[in-house]
């Protein structure tokens, strides 16, 4: 059986967004949505018109950050 990726869930409308402290000064910013028990949302601040959002299952968020820190992504 081929594993299927989880279906992304849209962020909640009431999500509070915070600009990441690791964002650059040259408008290379991401916003992190307040986590819920099921998901963690991330979006690009330059994409104001569309507000495209990546939504991760909550259990995948910490391993994702750790992979970035190790530069294995």
Key phrases:
4 strands, 73 residues, 4-stranded antiparallel β-sheet, alpha+beta, single chain
Estimate percent helicity: 10-25%
Widest β-sheet, arrangement of strands: 1-2-3-4
Main beta-sheet annotation: 4 strands, antiparallel
Average pLDDT figure: 77
H and E order: EEEEH
* Class based on secondary structure composition and strand pairing: alpha+beta
Give the amount of beta strand, in percent: 15-25%
Task: Walk me through the structure.
It is built from one helix and four strands. The chain is an alpha+beta fold and 73 residues long. The protein has a domain at 28-69. β3 and β4 form a beta hairpin. The longest helix is centred in the C-terminal third of the chain and has 12 residues, at 58-69. The relative contact order is 0.18. The mean pLDDT is 77.
